[in-house]
Amino acid sequence: MLKFNYAFQKVVDLKTSEKNHAEMHLSSALGVLQAEEQTLGQLFSSKDAAVDSIQDQTVNAVSASQLQQMQDYIQYIDQCILKKRQDIQTAQVKVEEKKEHLTTKMLDEKVWLQARGKALEGFQKEELQREQGELDEMATVRYAASRVQ
Fold it and tell me: How far lies 58's CA from each of 34, 53, 74, 76, in Å?
């Protein structure tokens, strides 16, 4: 029995490798997006804590300069929040790009795997025909030998 040897196996392996790399890049981009979203959540928590602190300080006697410092800090957090939202949008765009790239690589791999599958089917069909031919030849030889005796 012959072993199936696909002439373009290295191409199939390359396409699978490219797909795996695209999966890793997507996973990395998703990790960055998640980290950015987590940082945004922390910024909102910091802002809430600062606002609560100002509200607590207004009940107590606090200097105007301290209140101004706290207000400046809240404005700084607001700027950080705006920047982080931009970072999140950038990360989301990158995730979408990586998804599209992965989809392309998956389709490319699928095409090559289907071509390999068709080649394997053809090989198996030829192998079965060859084996059947050998069996037919053996039967013919036996029949001819039995007729001679």
Answer: 36, 9, 15, 20
pLDDT tens-digit series, residues 38-72: 999 999 999 999 898 888 776 677 788 888 898 99
Residues, the chain: 149
Q: Which residue from 120, 92, 105, 79 is spatially nearest to 23, judged by alpha carbons?
A: 105
- Decide if 38 is inside a domain: yes
Any domain includes 23: yes
**Whole-angstrom distance, CA of residue 10 vs CA of residue 96:** 29
* Assigned token pair, 25: 């890049």
Query: Could you tell me if residue 99 is inside a domain?
Result: yes
- Residue 27: give its domain's CATH number: 1.10.287.1700
Assign 108 a pLDDT band (cuts: 50, 70, 90). very high
Residue 63 gets the label, from left (phi > 0), alpha (psi -120 to 50) or beta, of beta
